[in-house]
Amino acid sequence: MPKSMTGYGKSRIESDTFTQVWEVRAVNSRFLDLKWRLPLFLRPSEAALERVVREAVARGRVEIHLEFTPTRVDMWKASFNTGLAGAMLDELAAFAAHKGVPFAPDISRMIGISHLWQEEAVDPDPELFAKLASGLRQALVDFNDARAREGRNLADDLLTRLGRLKDWQAAIEAGAPAVVAERTEQLVARITALLEKVGVEPTQDRLLQETAILADKLDVSEEMTRLSGHLARLEGLLRQGGEIGKKLDFLIQEAFREINTCGNKAQNLDISRLVVDFKAELEKCREQVQNIE
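Now predict its structure.
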């Protein structure tokens, strides 16, 4: 079965030195678009982590977040922006002097000014990176399980809709010959009446020529054959699974082309209604296919 492009996965791994919590969520997209929310120390490793993601995901706009909490103090470094802090104090001292009020700054309050501090973790060694990559893979497994469940639901829904489309296609194909016969009789009667009105005897050859032209204009057998093939291929892909989203989208476009041609040729109210129902259901299929990888 295919996979949905939307899903959510999570992993949490605790060790003696740190806790890592990965979250992966995605929505549909034409290509693979990764958005990272990582600690600063891990950002140089984005390319290596992207290779891990590409092992499990082919398409979608994927947001990946890592919450990394070390339990060892030596894994973190904190730096204080002394230049900015000094400038802030100088400005406050000048303001106080201008207003003629005493100024006695409480340095400890600067601990709570977040933009004066920058926290940095020690550059990850290969062992730490391997553990983080393993945590990401576990989140991706959970993520793909969710996508697979959603994909099965999408496939079941699409297969049900394809069943209705096949029924309507069969009804259109069965009703088309009667439309041709009815329109042919009307044409023969009209030509005969016009010629008799002016005193001309209608010839069989002329009638056959006109009816053949009309029958060719109304004939939808080729469109029905191609449409039937597209529907069968859609069903086969859905049962096959894999990365089929783009193929499904292309086949639905081709099915629209064929049913539009049938609608243009059909000069019958009943068939026109079937064509409208077919197109409405096919549009719902196209909306669902946008979520398949």
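The mean pLDDT is 83.
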